[in-house]
Amino acid sequence: MTVLADLTTSTEAFEASSTDVLETSSAEAFRSPSTPAFATPPTQVFDNRESAVRSYCRAFPVLLSSAHGTTLVAEDGTEYVDFFSGAGALNYGHNHAHIKRQVVAHLEGDGLLHALDFHTAAKREFLDRFGREILEPRGLHHRVQFCGSTGTDAVEAALKLARKHTGRTQVIAFSGAYHGVSRGSLAATADLSLRKVAGTHLGEVTHLPFPVGPRGAFPTMDLLEQYLTDDLSGVEVPAAVILEVVQMEGGVYRIPDADLRRLRDICDRYGIVLIADEIQAGCGRTGGFFSFEQAGVVPDLITVSKSIGGLGLPMSILLIREGLDSWAAGDHPGTFRGNQLAFVAACGALDLWQSQAFLDQARDGAELLRAFWENHPLPGVEVRCEGHAIGIDLTHAGGRQAADAVVAWCFERGLIVESTGRDKAVLKLLPALTMELDVLRHGCELIHEALRTALSR
Ligand SMILES: Cc1ncc(COP(=O)(O)O)c(C=O)c1O
Question: Which of 313, 335, 353 represents a domain boundary (last residue)?
């Protein structure tokens, strides 16, 4: 069967079940506050056997066993509405029926599962469709490099390629940035407590203030120009500038479009590789498929992971602009570069991007979120809305203590939301793009009530 025939078949199957696109949980999933949130789960084996490094399970002490749509289900049957979405890896919710069907069919047909970087049918379909349906319509003519299984692998590849291509070593990153915790990416990550854990020197990266942040605007591009034009600045012309167009772990801050365009221009003038890290902000999370689209800027290298794998399956890719693919064959190997199941799930997710019902729902959800938080201001609380990423900043309204209280209060009532940013004082709402509007509204109402309760203390 040709690729085209495959595509037709999958599209027909998709249309026949287009209601699946909208599948989600119901708003009734929220519990009354008087109901105990969770029975003490049998978690001893984790305490006894699992490494002390585990973290999310400490904030959310529940033993999860299944999930559907935007609902997580604990072993004891307790349900949780998911405003966390696997830190952005589940933009299409849990076990999306359409995507799951493709994956199950692949497994049942004894489709290949592991193939390093062999040519395979599943990879061919992904490459072909991702190019035609996502990249080309956005004027992106990048090549695709399949990296190891997780986001940091794409960041490592990007930094290494930029260095190889330019022959330079230095990199510029930004305060507030998060790019992963392997050695190269950690050097670009700004979190000092995470950096400390490296136990070694994390050199060759200079952090500049992000043009927007808790202290307001900063003339970063002026500073960068000054560094690059002053031969006594102490800052070498770098191989790359790496940024999240929307800093997510940093507290949901979007670089102003004008600054991003100016950064593109500076990079062009000095032959610096511009790397956009789309690992959390991409795949529709903050508006368009990519967060940089609205600025009309084309990055040289783009890292994509998390939700690209459709169902939360591991996948991590680097998009490489024409003329920058300076790798020689075998320069950057890795055993798990070809997760075939993730390719299949990724194609299932691409079907959603062809569905008007999905696009309408994502647009309506983002609009609901923006309108809700605009219309429900709270004293001292700043809310930053970027599509389906909402940062509720409590820095000047109770700080970390208030954020922790809101997270715990919501959890007890059946909603999972996390905090992030400086001193973990920013609530970060990451509902799936497929969340039903009434669930989305109820979730926001619950979080708003939690905020009012925390702020009244
Ligand atoms: C922007 C960004 N880059 C890189 C990473 C690292 O991805 P991973 O945790 O899959 O290695 C993350 C993870 O949250 C991220 O948000």
Answer: 353
What is the model's pTM? 0.92
Q: Which domain holds residue 293?
A: 111-353
Question: 292, 327, 353: which is the final residue of a domain?
Answer: 353
Spell out the long-range contacts of 262-270 with Cβ–Cβ below 8 A and sequence spacing 24 or more: 262/221, 263/221, 263/224, 263/297, 264/297, 264/298, 264/299, 266/221, 266/224, 266/225, 266/228, 267/241, 267/300, 270/228, 270/237
Do 326 and 242 share a domain, yes or no?
yes
Q: Ligand 1: distance of its center to the CA of 153 in Å?
A: 9
Residues 6+ apart with CB under 8 A from 374: 383, 385
Do residues 391 and 309 share a domain?
no
The CATH number linked to 411 is 3.90.1150.10
280 CB under 6 A from ligand 1?
yes
Residue in 56, 91, 155, 279 to alter for ligand 1 test, most ligand atoms within 8 A of Cβ: 279
pLDDT in tens, 218-262: 999 999 999 999 999 999 999 999 999 999 999 999 999 999 999
